[in-house]
């Protein structure tokens, strides 16, 4: 199908009616719906659907860096580029772990990219929708350059919640985090679940491979399971920051939370020919289930 600018989108469906949509613009997952057709990924009602800028929502792929590292683009440039369908994905990705449908996307660095980041790479993304409705993103970065390079990576995951003040995040207790609201100063999280009463913008370090986001009102829990992504970014802009963003509604912060699987604190170094793999699996369960995190 075509998305907002006639740019191709791939729709994945499973036999129970769950679905996902991925845009070739940025390799961005724009939608993930459960088998009742409920949208689980947040998209701002004021999102700007104009190429060379990622729409505000879904799961932008942040590479080769996350945050403002002095390059022209915040969160890297691949989220603003047109990707292609990968006709011959690497054999090792044959492991489908219960996928009912999937798509392989590819972004190869261009001559133009070299001007803002002087390294050649191949970035592959497989998005799978499982029979049970789970969404899996697998990324693979290969250094096809003559010299080593280091990068950071994040799945900028915008989740829908019914009311941010009723959301708890479990799995990050007692961990250290860098607080983007205090010049990235390092703090230690207290001993119980994270809750939200104001803007939060933190990078939790050396996190466990499973994190739970409990949406109390809707009796729904998201579980994020990840590999190769040691850090977790937790972001809610709250009211003041929301008003300052042109592509974000004033009140929408109440219905979303960003919980990003990421590799940020220690950039990943790849020698020529080497590759890195990162994986994130999103699951949504009725909160009544006990979570063996
Ligand atoms: O997710 C954390 C964060 O880095 C915040 O600091 C905020 O900048 C957010 O990403 C939005 O970034 P974007 O480039 O999508 O406006």
UniProtKB/TrEMBL annotation:
It catalyses: alpha-D-glucose 6-phosphate = beta-D-glucose 6-phosphate. One of its GO terms (biological process) is carbohydrate metabolic process. CDD domains: D-hex-6-P-epi_like (cd09020). Gene3D superfamilies: 2.70.98.10. It holds the Pfam family Aldose_epim. GO terms for cellular component: cytoplasm. Its EC number is 5.1.3.15. Belongs to the glucose-6-phosphate 1-epimerase family. This is glucose-6-phosphate 1-epimerase. It comes from Cucurbita maxima.
């Amino acid at each position: 199908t075509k998305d907002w600018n006639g740019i191709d989108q791939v729709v994945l469906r499973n036999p129970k009616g769950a679905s996902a949509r991925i845009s070739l613009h940025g390799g961005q997952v724009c939608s993930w719906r459960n088998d009742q057709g409920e949208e689980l990924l947040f998209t701002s009602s004021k999102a700007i659907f104009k190429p060379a800028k990622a729409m505000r929502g879904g799961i932008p792929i942040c590479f080769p860096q996350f945050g403002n590292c002095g390059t022209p683009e915040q969160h890297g440039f691949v989220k603003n580029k047109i990707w292609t369908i990968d006709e011959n994905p690497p054999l090792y990705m044959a492991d489908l772990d219960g996928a009912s449908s999937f798509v392989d996307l590819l972004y190869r660095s261009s001559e133009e990219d070299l001007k803002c980041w002087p390294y050649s790479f191949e970035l592959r993304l497989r998005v799978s929708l499982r029979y049970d409705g789970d969404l899996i993103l697998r990324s693979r970065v290969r250094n096809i350059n003559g010299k080593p390079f280091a990068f950071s990576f994040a799945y900028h995951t915008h989740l829908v919640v019914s009311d941010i003040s009723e959301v708890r995040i479990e799995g990050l207790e007692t961990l250290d985090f860098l607080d983007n609201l205090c010049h990235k100063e390092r703090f230690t999280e207290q001993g119980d679940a994270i809750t939200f009463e104001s803007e939060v913008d933190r990078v939790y370090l050396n996190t466990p491979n499973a994190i739970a986001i409990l949406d109390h009102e809707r009796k729904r829990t998201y579980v994020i399971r990840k590999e190769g992504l040691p850090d977790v970014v937790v972001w809610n802009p709250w009211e003041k920051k929301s008003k300052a963003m042109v592509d974000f509604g004033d009140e929408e912060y109440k219905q979303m939370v960003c919980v990003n699987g990421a590799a940020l604190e220690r950039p990943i170094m790849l020698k020529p020919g080497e590759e890195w793999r990162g994986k994130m699996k999103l699951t949504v369960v009725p909160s009544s289930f006990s979570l063996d995190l």
